Amino acid sequence: MASTQLRKGRTKSILMGSIDSALLAVEIYNKPRTTFRTEGFISMMIISWTKLFHAWFNHTIGNRYYYKTKSGTRYKRIDGERKAWELKTCISEYNKLEDDELKDSVVANLHFFIGLRNKIEHRHVDKSEIDSLVLGECQSFLYNYESLLIKLFGKGYALNENLVYSLQFSTLRTKEQQQSNKRALSREVKEIKDYVDKYRTALPDEVFSSQEYSIKLIQIPKVSNTNRSDLAIEFVRLDELSNDDIERYEQVTTIIKDKVVKTEAVNVEKYRFTSVIDELNKRLNTDLNQYDMRCLYTVFSIRPRSNDENADPFDTNTKYCMYDEVHGDYVYTEDWIDFLENNFKNEAITREFIRNSFRNDVRLDVEEYEGRNLD
Questions:
Q1: pLDDT at residue 86 above 60?
Q2: Is 1 inside a domain boundary?
Q3: pLDDT (0 to 100) of residue 254
Q4: What CA–CA distance (Å, rounded) separates 188 from 184?
Q5: How far is CA 15 from the centre of its chain?
Q6: 218-248, pLDDT tens digit by residue?
Q7: What gap in Å lies between CA 318 and CA 148, rounded to an integer?
């Protein structure tokens, strides 16, 4: 669209706040000594995206991007301020209002960071493994933002900024170093990595492979006889390559990319909620019921609480429980039944103890109880 000339006013004020947040996100990410890199970048970009949508809504539909009470006559308020749509709602409302909807890959990238932000909000993660793990998604997060910014308000608001590819202090990392780094990962970092892996695996191939979801970079040292004016690193859009170049690119990436193995069978050797109760009662000769099972999965945090509407259903401990998206419920593993059987038989847990823990909102460390197996 042609550049939208905004006069001083609410829309321009919101838009400039959005742009400032994006520039600050880039500044945080590109500082070499930053230890809050990924968390800071994501937090500022979430704000930036949200304000971008708010600016557009204010420009097109006025101040109707605020939540109202059930009666529809009053605004919901937080600390006296009207509660505006959060990013997830902005995405769905934008697609309802605009004929040219956001691409599925753009939406997938946004939802990825909304979930990741929720994961890291109460954690301090300063491991470089997380930074490199989501580099591609971070780059797309920024590029998608600028693309929509230009589309909605014109090229006059282009950022002309980008993330740099971080310099490495060593050209080689030995297997021992890689294993050491993996062992050093904290439990919280592992939980974040599990979230990233599960989210990527669940994406359709065409979404995961798109540049809008994640920009894939290959670092190949250039030989010494290249043109001396060449850039050390060049970024090439996949959709601008010829068919021959794309074929060669695919041949290279098959050498280095992880293979995701898909099988036709699903939920093999998995148990439904009531089947867990039946099997456990048979093994223990007891009368545990559905309430006890809810207490157990909540106390040990193997899946979200059933009444938590804001929880990510895929946020499970996959060793014990997985979300079945097709049927909209959860399935449980043999390991979960064995885990409960062992701890009940060893008297590490009792029905009353679990119920009291649930009532008092106590969470138990599942790893602590995993070592209490039967002889």
A1: yes
A2: no
A3: 53
A4: 11
A5: 25
A6: 555 555 555 555 555 555 566 666 777 767 7
A7: 36
* Tokens at 230, concatenated: 């060449």
Task: Scan for tokens 């794309």, then name that residue.
Answer: 246
* Overall number of domains in the chain: 2
Same domain, 41 and 185: yes
| Residues written for the chain | 375
Residue in 49, 39, 66 with CA at minimum distance from that of residue 14: 49
- pLDDT tens digits along 114-157: 988 887 776 655 555 677 788 889 989 999 999 999 999 988 88
- 282, two tokens: 């048979």
> Are residues 120 and 192 in contact, defined by beta-carbon separation less than 8 angstroms?
yes
User: Lowest-pLDDT range, 63-77, 194-208, 243-257?
Assistant: 243-257
In the chain, the amino acid numbered 150 is I
- Which stretches of 52-98 are assigned E, i.e. beta strand? 77-78, 81-82
Same domain, 149 and 250: yes
DSSP summary character for residue 271: E
Q: What integer pLDDT is reported at residue 170 of this predicted model?
A: 45
Examine residue 264 and state whether it is found in any structural domain, yes or no.
no
Rounded CA-CA distance 195/135 in Å is: 15
Q: Give the sheet arrangement for strand 321-324, strand by strand.
A: 270-271, 329-333, 321-324
Residues 286 and 239 in one domain: no
Confidence of residue 40 (pLDDT cuts 50, 70, 90): confident
